[in-house]
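Forwarding the complex inputs:
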Amino acid sequence: MEIAPLGDSALIVRVRNQFEDAPEQTSNEVLRALRRIEDARISGVIELAPAYTTVAVFFDPLRVMDDAARVDHVIESLTQKIHEALSRGGRRKQRDKSTRLIEIPVCYEAEFALDLEQVSRQMQIDPIEVIDLHRTAQYRVSCIGFTPGFPFLSGLHKRLATRRRSIPRKEIPAGSVAIAGAQTGIYPMKSPGGWNIIGRTPLHLFDPRKDPPALLRPGDRVRFRAITREEFDRLKR
Amino acid sequence: MQDLGRLGFRQFGVSVGGALDSHALRVANLLVGNDESAAGLEITLGGLRLHFVDDRIVAWCGGGFDVRLGSTSVAAGHAALVRAGQELMFNQPKVGCRCWLGISGEIDVPIVLGSRSTDLRTNFGGFDGRALRDGDEIALGKNSKHAQSLVDLLREQRISSWSPPHDWSSPAQREPILRVMRGSDWNRFNDVTIQRFTNEAFIVSPDSDRMGVRLEGIELKRNHDIDLISEAVVPGTIQVPPGGRPIVLLGDCQTIGGYPKIAHVISVDLPTAAQLRLGDRVRFHEISLTEAHQLLAERERDLAEFRVGIKLRMR
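Prediction (whole assembly, two chains):
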């Protein structure tokens, strides 16, 4: 496992070098590393954030200096502590946050599925089949980013691997469910973006008044449930 | 409205945000008797008039702004007593683009996700999740004991004779050199490109904002254009999109990115980066990570001394 500086106040722990060859295994390993570093409560560490193949460790160099005493030992000291944390086996029972299964209702009707026809044409798949392929698969949150609460979901059917729009939209409506490459995702709020929109969820994926503020977290499993326009309106209220 | 930023929510994609020059805000807060982490105003390119309804101590740090209290000029890094009914005016800066104003008593807005900072990208926190507009009324807390003693101290003099080191109160430079350390993709660029990256000047281009400073000039081409897997980025990260024009990320940057990271601006030079504005020329100079930490430790030691000095005046 490689640990490398990310500027002077963060480190990146690289758990694997690839993701697409084994998404499930990679996510598991990233989450395990995240949990072990979290459990080690390393002094000076402010927060952790996982992404596909990595765990970012954000720290306060001044606090680490207080502990490591020498200015030129900040990284060595932290790296060593992270390695120790990672090699500490899973003795204690793992509180497995990674197995939550969240169902997300999606209305795939034309009004919301802005790019469904174009996806259907590009992939030469009937629109109904595009929806079926999308709603029957099970997905996993590999990481949250782009905007607050935006989940990058792996597990998209290979036949739905579309190109991004050549010109990104300036404004995508909140709740839009979209696909691009090997991934699907949900725009939590109105934002620009280049993914192909095939539906919309009435759920709020990000609410700063809540803690945690995001509906999903890395490791969660996700299923989509197709809903009618009426149900969308009812759930939206 | 910004404080020292929003920590602990990057795993949910929430930017750190906060004052783009957190050091300037800390110093401004110390000067007015506030807690260092209090929220202040981040003023971009001036054109602001603040009307005070009661007596307050104010201090600002940042770009080369012309700040006036009535007809009196208030220099960066000096504490000033503003009486009820007076107006504080920020005109356009001659150099740099942002400054931070500390106001005694501290700005009173709700804490959202651990911070009073406005997240302008997602529109939450701070003042209704948006930049301030004409006519907004900002609620302030009560002056601290320290601030009250400053009010008494500055009754005659109005503006303090003391101030912090010049490079803290006025970090903006016309042709700055930002010190950088290598990023994880440094080696994806060939020697010639790296040579040019650390020797030639870049020019700040339009659509630079709190998310990042976009640069023009030489194009930084990679050896091989392979796709990278998205991973964390931080304020200070210099990323290079396919066109080869680097972007220096600032406080409101996304939490993850998929572009190569050629280098990172060190923490103590982020205040200088936060001042870059359209047309500015900027260069990069490579230093080691240990040097970056040394510089940070030195500045923190100096700040600790300054803090003691300030507290002594406020007794």
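The radius of gyration of chain B is 20 Å.
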